[in-house]
Amino acid sequence: MFGPFRATSPLSGGLLWKIPFRLSAPQKARQRKRLRAVDTVIATLDTALRKQGSSLKEVERWKAEMPREEEMRPKDKYTVFDRKEKRYRKGIHKVPKWTRVSQRVNPPGF
């Protein structure tokens, strides 16, 4: 408590690594770039498979279910559904591994 080794206020409680409330402009730009990169990979796979005269079920399912980056609303690009949140949305940067996992589809109405 007291003395030379007393706990400082940031260490005495709360998160060890503070996560900001909202995404910064560069984080949003990198998120859009990641979404576009995935879209180009899917498009490249689709054209290459079409040239060979074949297709993959997974690629066709991705194209049918997942919206492209241009089709997504900003709300869907930067937030995800979370039933424990007050307004059922939380920033995508608060999701573990948010840079590696695709979070494009949310429940209807949210």
Multimeric state of these chains? Answer: single chain
User: Structural class of the secondary elements?
Assistant: mainly alpha
Q: Low-confidence parts, pLDDT < 50 over ≥5 residues?
A: none
Q: What is the percent of helical residues?
A: 40-55%
The spatial strand order of the largest sheet comes to 1-2
Order of secondary-structure elements? HHHHEE
The number of helical segments is: 4
Keywords:
2 strands; elongated; two-stranded antiparallel sheet; mainly alpha; 42% helix; 110 residues
Please outline the helices and strands.
Layout: H1 9-12, H2 25-52, H3 57-65, H4 74-78, E1 79-81, E2 89-91
What does it look like?
The protein has 110 residues and is mainly alpha-helical. It contains four helices and two strands; from the N terminus they run ααααββ. The chain has helices at 9-12, 25-52, 57-65, 74-78, and strands at residues 79-81, 89-91. Strands 1-2 form a two-stranded antiparallel sheet. The longest helix is centred in the middle third of the chain and has 28 residues, at 25-52. The chain is elongated and about 75 Å long.
Question: Can you describe this structure in just a few lines?
Answer:
By secondary structure, this protein is mainly α. Helix content is about 40%, strand content about 5%. The chain has a two-stranded antiparallel ribbon with strand order 1-2.
